[in-house]
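@channel sequence for tomorrow's demo:
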Amino acid sequence: MIAGMIARMLDQVLGRPEAAAGPAPPWPFAQPPDAPCITLRRVLRGDAPVLRAARDADGDWQFLDGAAMTEADAAVVGLGEMLRRDPMLAAVASLPPGAAARRDAPGAPWRRDAPSAPWRRDAPGAPWERQW
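structure tokens (generated this afternoon):
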């Protein structure tokens, strides 16, 4: 017990913030931290915030800024990297495939978009399809 306290104190003194902050919160997403997701180069550079989060029909994530974009603007990064950059993304972890959410500014609450049609799939692993 004393050895653990000393180790934590040394971590704090030596500037190891991850140790001083305590245990990491549980992973909020169903996908692993190394799951690929799509974002924008300007988001990764810090030139634009993530203001829109979406899951496509296959359940893959997109974290965008809501501005016009081209395919050349896209970047692929791990889901864990996106959460590290913006911990507020944990609030959208429960979005089902085909759903999206947006916010007005970084730190603002997320608002889920109204679904245009419900999604379904006939069996696990089958593709998601809209029910019209």
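heads up for whoever presents: The CA atoms of residues 119 and 130 lie 4 Å apart.
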